[in-house]
Amino acid sequence: MKKQFLNLGLLTAMLGAAALASCTDNGGDPVTPPTETEDRWITVAGALMGTNPGDGNGGTKVFSVSKEEAKNPDVRISVFADGYGVPSNRTARLQSSEDGNTLFNIAYTGDNGGEFSKYDVKGGAEYPKADVSVNISQYAGTSPRWVKLFDEDKTGIAVNVANIEANNAPGGSTPSAPFAYYRGTATVLALDLQNALISAFKQYQIPLTPQEEAAGHTIFRLDAPVLNQAGNKLLIGTWMRKYDVATGTTQGDYERLGTKTVVVDYPSLENPTVITSTVGFGDCSGYRSFNSFLAEDGSIYQATQRDPNGSHILKITSANQYDNSYVFSLDAALGVDDVYVDAWRYAGDNKAIALYTHGGSDQGYIAYVDLAAKTATKVDIPYDADLDFGQYQGFVVDGDEVYVAVTPTGKDGNIYIINTKTGVATKGATLVNEPGNHYIGIF
Fold first, then answer.
1. Where does the secretion signal sit in this chain (predicted)?
2. What CA–CA distance (Å, rounded) separates 185 from 215?
């Protein structure tokens, strides 16, 4: 097996080539509604427990079936007994090709953390691995966050923030110098998924306003990048943190800033700027899945987490600015308090599926969302107190259908297929579980 570690000189040369290629490949492509893929595989993924039930720290297994099998409630899928173990010290960060025939993974933590791999999907536990891999850990660490862009499976983007430290005012390096800010070093890395190599790489600090930084606010994590419709900007979600500037300790309870997104040039990954919502006050980093989506009209929609007013769906215009006239509170739409979006997926034609909790509970629910009407309704399926979507990663959107894995921790569950025209869910194959384990996605 070949393992590639690219030096910075080679990265610079490759960056120029990537910029040239993008002039024809990415610019201004229209967003088309999801289409149905005949004979595609449906890969089911499950996370094994490590120390505690539901922690997902024991690794990841996958198993693939046909669409017909996935839709059949008489079919039983036992990913933990029969599946293929994807190399990863903890839960693997999986992505799939648009046709379901290729699985991509970046191992998370451990000796192989940061190693990208790709697999052919052949059915059942057959996932032959391509004979080439690339390790991005020396650039983005052993625990990078990453997603695949919606660019015909060409590019993955990995991001990271490391080494957050206090800095004195410019020109001052002694303890008596005035405090200036807390900042970490951000990494944004583009990965060529087809050739398994790094195509671009940038590192920089991303400042907030002087007033925000003086109060101890900083970007703690980046995640869930999305490419705009023009193909010239990458928008990256943020998870914010606030430090007590007098003691250096983090503050758990503080007045949050408006939701912030980092915007960088694409494909150069240069010139980071920060845009701020006045509607949402939570983070927009998601957790282990996509969190921002490009719609057919050129707008980008993103969900918030840890919002003191409950999760919102925010709108970013084609000019890469928040549309603060678009107000969509999921608390108001669902008629509950303290909604938290664990994961969600845009499904075309302004419709989406959201996995959420509310009222401070970990119990998960599914909502059918209309972004144009700004409505959300709970999907009618059986719910269980042990259903937790906190680590959920993958949805398959196939034409007018969205496939979701629904399993309470340690209990059997099912694949559910939700019609995006009606919001009606149909029970599919049974997902056989084991104590402490849970299913984390469909790919």
1. 1-21
2. 19
Answer yes or no: is 107 within a domain: no
Number of domains in the chain: 1
Residue 39 placed within a domain: no
The answer as to whether 344 is a domain residue is no
Is residue 211 situated within a structural domain? yes
> Which pLDDT tens digit goes with each residue over 277-290?
999 999 999 998 99
Tokens of 244: 């007590």
Q: What is the pLDDT of residues 113-169, one digit of tens each?
A: 888 999 999 999 999 999 877 899 998 888 889 999 999 999 999 999 999 999 875
What confidence tens digit (pLDDT) does each residue in 66-90 have? 999 999 999 999 999 999 999 877 8
Task: Give the Å distances, CA to CA, from 409 to 22, 23, 45, 371.
Answer: 43, 47, 14, 31
Look at residue 174 in the predicted model and tell me its pLDDT. 52
* Beta strands across the sheet bearing 145-148: 145-148, 155-168, 179-192, 197-204
Domain housing 143: 1-30+129-327
Between 113 and 235, the higher pLDDT residue: 235
Q: How far is CA 248 from CA 26, 167, 217, in A?
A: 43, 11, 12
Separate counts of helices (H) and strands (E) for the chain: 6, 29
Q: Residue 112: its pLDDT value, please?
A: 82
Q: Give rounded-to-5 percent helix, strand, coil for the chain.
A: 10, 40, 50
The CA distance from 169 to 191, in Å, is: 36
- Dig out the tokens for 365 from the structure: 């629910």
Asked whether 125 and 82 are in contact (CB, 8 A), the reply is: yes
Tokens in use for 51?
């120390």
Residue 170 has pLDDT above 70, yes or no: no
Specify the residue for token string 């309870």. 253
pLDDT at 277: 98
The amino acid present at 157, given as its one-letter code, is I
Q: Which of 58, 12, 64, 62 is nearest to 41 (CA)?
A: 64
How confident is the model at residue 23, as a pLDDT? 38
Token pair of 352 as six digits: 């989406």
Which residues, at least 6 apart from 202, have a Cβ–Cβ distance to it below 8 Å? 187, 188, 189, 264, 268, 269, 270
Q: Nearest to residue 310, comparing CAs of 328, 292, 287, 285? A: 328
Taking a C-beta distance cutoff of 8 angstroms, is the pair 190, 269 a contact?
yes
Q: What is the DSSP string of 39-77?
A: T-EEEEEEE--SSSTT--TT-EEEEEEEHHHHH-TT-EE
Average pLDDT over residues 401-426: 98
Q: Say if residues 237 and 219 touch (Cβ distance below 8 Å).
A: no
CA 373 – CA 349 distance, rounded (Å): 12
